[in-house]
UniProtKB/TrEMBL annotation:
Keyword Metal-binding: no
Name listed for the protein in its UniProt record: Uncharacterized protein
Keywords: Membrane, Transmembrane, Transmembrane helix
Membrane spanning residue stretches: 38-60, 72-92, 112-133, 145-166, 218-234, 241-258, 264-281, 286-307, 382-402, 432-450
Amino acid sequence: MTLAAPASERTGGPAHGARKTITLPAWPVAGILALYPLWWALGLGVLIFAVMAVPMLFLLLRRRAAGRTLMLPPGFGWWALFLIAIVVSIGALGADPAGTVPEHAVGRLPAVTYKLVMYLALTVLLVYAGNLTERELPKKRLVKYLGWLFVVTVAGGFLGMVAGHFEFTSPVEMLLPHGVRNKGFVQSLVHPYAAQIMDLVGGEKPRPAAPWGYTNTWGNNFCLLAGWLVVAAWQSGRGRNKVLAVLCLLASIVPAVVSLNRGLWIGIGVLVLYVAARYVLAGKVWIVGVVAVAGAMLFVAVVATPLGGVVSARMDNGKSNGVRSFLIDRALDGFAGSPVVGYGGTRNTVGGRNSITVGESAGCERCGNFTVGGNGQLWQLLYAHGAAGTLGYLGFFGYGLWRFRRDRSAIGVAASAALVTSYSAMLWYNALVTPLAFMVLAFALLWRNATERNSLEGDKSG
């Protein structure tokens, strides 16, 4: 496994020797992030990651064929174990665990193939982003793209609030056959809409989803991207950018509360506490005062406005608690039945949590046939890919947190905070596709920080 490259190549300096320098252009990564609202409107959305993985893989292979070394991220063996577990677990697609709807393996293959393609596409993104040099794509610019996507997330939240029923037929959707584009799964990929309409606190209300497809994904990405807006604004050195960032964070409180997303609220708490702990350990005790003031402002904003009633109503109405507990039990039962490699994918339960005779109908789409593994990345890993896949997935990001634990730079703290929040989010959110994309980009930034720091130290010692 090649894990190193010449110092001059990694830092973007002049190359030595007779080999031709093959640069990696920034446009595949920049194009995904900077233009994501466009991809969403066109109906590409998460599909853009698979589309862009093709030129990224070609460019990586071209560089390798030219004799230039390519780095793999530290701990890549864990990720390789995860990918292998996915492939091996496909062999169990034909199994019908007790209490699940029987189906032929062929019928389950399209969804599993989609997930495998996306996991591979994000693997390419990880390697590509990690091999980009400062000259090709400065880390500060990548941080700006991620901060920009937080702004997009907040804007999408407000769109979902004021125009919850807004939706339209995308160009990609128009090109699909009628029988294909009307399928629920396909709709979630190519049909742009502002919010999911749900009855959680009495009466159907819109919950922000744009441009991420699902309210839970919106909340997950909110936590993963918030830190990057702060880093981008403060690294710019401009007071105007800092003020705008603070205003955006303050404004984001409104859609975050209205989303009724308890997982998001917990994730924000984890994010703030982790960052505060890192700064305190670094001797910057002033962060405690900042967190206290911010907490007081948030408390006043919630209590003194109608947002307080929204929070109270959500806490008093835990309609999803029973379903989540039911699905966790089913996932753990399934794990016990196939503990090593799982079942290759999710399964639908027979009936609901109270009766096997309850199922989906035109009048009640959420009455039963719940998806085992659809209520959190951890439960999906255990159920679909067993201990091998779970160990590989958790081991990779856990190794990264440990390996880069001494990175006290603003980028290092923000990236590790994003990974820490992802560990809490996996209890109730699924990570594929965009949340995992932002996780691997956070890993890539930590990796590039370490690589460039080692290069500078090597140059000094030389």
